[in-house]
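Notes to self, LysR family transcriptional regulator:
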Amino acid sequence: MREFNLDQLRTLIAVVDLGSLASASSALNLAQPTISLHLKELESKLKVRLLERSRRGVSPTTAGTILIEHAREILAIADRASEAVRNHREGLLGVVRVGASAGLIAHHMPNVLQELSMRRPDIRIELSVTTTATANAMLFGDELDFALVGASQRQSGLTVIRWREDPLVAYLPADWSVPRRVTAEWLQEQPLLTNEPGSALYHQTLRWFAQAGFIIQPRIALNNGEALKSLVAAGYGAAILPFDSNLGSIATGIQVRDVAPAMKRSTFLAFKSSRSTAEPLKSVGDILRKCGRSSA
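result:
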């Protein structure tokens, strides 16, 4: 029996994901008769029906679901193989995947990328926006090589080291009358903007208020520090975030105050212990450590 090919698997996945042959035809830039032929060849080779057609569209049979699960893995392996050969052709040693919050990527990864481009131009970095919880799961699932996380939870198989510390300050609308140092007692009476529940910064903020005897109800919660600052500048509320010396165009709408008692946000570098000594991971890990120490 001739084996099915990658194009046929891509066609099957596209038809199921998009719900129709016509949509798959448009997405894959293939004529609809070609789409039908790919599906017919697959079913012929496997001697089983893979799809059910109805007025509501196309759905996989049980056999189709089984094949699609494996097809996604096969195509992912093929894509990685193609990328590895392309990297070799272009003189790249490899690709290293790093996950971090949007704020950390915006403020601190440019320094890492600049250092890497000077010292190791043969390594390419892929960045993913993550939370601490999703980053740890992605490390264990080999979807990330390194992650910058906001909590130092020790987990078997992961190495977690302190990367940097940043003071936390209160961001307040410019037209508010505020004390020189902002306390939990004063701030809990104001409309508050926080990171989303589940983030390390959200829990740290809640603990800071709780230690002063207050339970807060945020007016809004977002996992995007820049968006929170924009809302502060618009007068929507106050936020506790890492200090940022460059507020750009929103600077005139914000005033920044120290909080009392003082707080710092710790960021940790996490990676799989078993993989940290292999290239190109070792080089990237060394650069990440250097950039963290130099900016702490």
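- The chain has three domains: 6-89, 94-163+268-295, 166-264.
- Residues 62-89 form the longest helix (28 residues).
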